[in-house]
Amino acid sequence: MAENESLEKGDDVTWRSHGQTVHGEVEQKITRRTETAGRTVDASSDDPQYKVKSDKTGREAVHKPGALKKDG
């Protein structure tokens, strides 16, 4: 994802997981240390992460912006 491109809740995105491309949706921008998606996320306003939900499995994951590609 480009540095100047930001993601918002509801954006459709893709990411790589276990050798496959996963399609899903941004659920939340995380800007502070928190527990979500089954793990501790060490995010900050300078280093945000995004909680995403897979369209296929419904599972949630957290990724840094560089791992996500905005669809469309």
TrEMBL record:
Regions of compositional bias (Basic and acidic residues) in chain numbering: 1-15, 24-36, 48-72
InterPro entries per UniProt: Hva1_TUDOR
Record-annotated Hypervirulence associated protein TUDOR domain positions: 10-68
Region described as Disordered: 1-72
A Pfam short name: Hva1_TUDOR
Superkingdom of this protein's organism: Bacteria
Protein name as catalogued: DUF2945 domain-containing protein
Organism: Paractinoplanes aksuensis
